[in-house]
Amino acid sequence: MRRVVSLVPSLTEAVALSLPGALIGATDWCSHPADLDVVRIGGTKNPDVDSIVRLAPDLVLANEEENREPDLTALRAAGIEVLVTEVRDVPGAFSELQRVLYACGAQTRPRWLEEAERAWAELVVPARRTTAVVPIWRRPWMVLGRDTFAGDVLARLGVDNVYAHHEERYPRVPLPELEAAAPELVILPDEPYRFTAADGPEAFEGVPCALVDGRLLTWYGPSLAQAPRLLGEALRAARR
After folding, report:
1. Region at 84 (left for phi over 0; alpha for psi -120 to 50; beta for the rest)
2. Model pTM above 0.85
3. For residue range 201-216, what is the model confidence (pLDDT) as tens digits?
4. Whole-angstrom distance, CA of residue 61 vs CA of residue 15
5. Are 62 and 72 in contact (CB under 8 A)?
């Protein structure tokens, strides 16, 4: 089994559950599993490269969206192998997860990955689709745009992102424009911005709001097994 440092919270959870003992380092944002006991090496955007090098890992896991290229270049310059994932949709998540786990030393596919693939394959898409905007930040307002993993997750659950064809992946859109888009639903995750019942819905008067677990919406890992059911329940509850 290889010694692994993960710079991606969802991959940290996937490796920790599939290959206990493989992880030797993870970011401060790697919150799952809750009892993970490894060296913390800073944030996803500002990892302590020197600390990672001192750990002498066989492999560092990264993501093209979450991590900065200068940090990955510095790790490679130090002679460390870096595996960079790119995930834009659910099928891509499954293939990248398998690639990551095998690179970390797995010999077989973990049960949770099989369960996750089955959950999405058996998903029944609602007959009636719903248009939505999906804010991910406030002050300034930012939303899901084109070509995102979270957008594909929602599309498979019957939700059409109003900004799915925007030229940017995470555009800044002023609140009046979000309101003028007239979505049927506003979806408010609790990460990266922590929207709550008291912080977010009040900005969209008269529009149903679904407060959802950001991990279910944006993480590609073991949470994929529960995401179709739990996100579906949250969306249906908001649309009633």
Report:
1. beta
2. yes
3. 999 999 999 999 999 9
4. 10
5. yes
